[in-house]
Specification:
The chain has 217 residues and is of the alpha/beta class. The chain folds into 2 domains: 3-128, no CATH class; 143-215, no CATH class. 35% of the residues lie in helices and 12% in strands. It has 8 helices and 6 strands. The protein has helices spanning 3-10, 41-58, 82-85, 88-100, 109-119, 135-138, 144-154, 190-195, and strands at residues 32-36, 61-65, 103-106, 126-128, 159-163, 201-205. The strands form 2 sheets. Strands 1-2-3-4 form a 4-stranded parallel β-sheet. β3, α5 and β4 form a beta-alpha-beta unit. α2 (41-58) packs parallel to α4 (88-100). The longest helix has 18 residues, at 41-58. The two termini are 35 Å apart.
């Protein structure tokens, strides 16, 4: 589906670029501008000096989008982004942008309460949008009969999928205060996977830890 089709279907005309575009003309005709997980000094400067005054002038909604926790104490040491968020200035930047935005969009009611509690964002300015694909994007691709056939074919050795980014693994050797390697999300289930490779089809998408590579088919 094209961007134009999405706009026409939803009535939302928003930014569709991962890069910041410092050109006022680019934002003409948009009814909302969204930034995602902005925290750096450069991003705050763009937000405060350009996007905020621009959207005040045009009446465009300024949206801050986030799908996870950003408090330094809430990000595990093994997460590759921990050191970036463990920065007082960056945390101040996050708080400023969250509270200056017209709307903060999150993925769950728990995260909604978290941003109210952690950064003082008013609850009525936080919108929890379920993290799922719209039916108009994938509805015509779902085939119940095909799914039933797949289930029948694989039920003797069920498939279990693990989809995760590098942020769930201690790939950079982070250590705790005692100098021990920090256990990551995968450490909690690695032994189970190794012990049940003949019973289940473990499908890992995104990253395969070193200890799992000998088992990859």
């Amino acid at each position: 589906m094209t961007t134009d089709a999405i706009c026409n279907a939803t009535g939302i005309v928003n930014t569709y670029s991962l890069d910041f575009i410092p050109l006022p003309r680019y934002y003409e005709g948009m009814n909302s501008v969204t930034v995602q997980r902005w925290l750096s000094n450069e991003q705050r400067n763009a937000f405060e000096k350009f996007l905020f005054p621009l959207t005040r002038k045009t009446g465009t909604k300024l949206i801050y989008e986030i799908d996870d926790a950003m408090g330094a104490d809430d990000i595990p040491l093994y997460n590759r982004g921990h050191d970036c968020f463990d920065n007082e200035q960056f945390q101040e930047n996050i708080k400023y942008m969250l509270n200056a935005a017209d709307i903060v969009t999150v993925t769950t009611s728990y995260i909604k309460e978290y941003y109210n509690r952690k950064y003082g964002v008013p609850l009525d300015r936080i919108l929890a949008v379920p993290n799922m694909l719209s039916r108009m994007w994938f509805g015509d691709r779902y085939d119940p009969e095909r799914k039933l056939k797949q289930f029948s074919h694989h039920k003797s050795r069920p498939r279990i999928g693990i989809v995760s980014s590098l942020s769930h693994y201690n790939t950079h050797g982070a250590k705790d205060a005692n100098g021990e390697l920090v256990k990551d999300d995968f450490d909690l289930i690695a032994d189970v996977i190794c012990d049940t490779v003949d019973e289940f089809q473990w499908v890992i998408i995104g990253h395969v830890p070193e200890r799992m590579k000998p088992l990859v088919e």
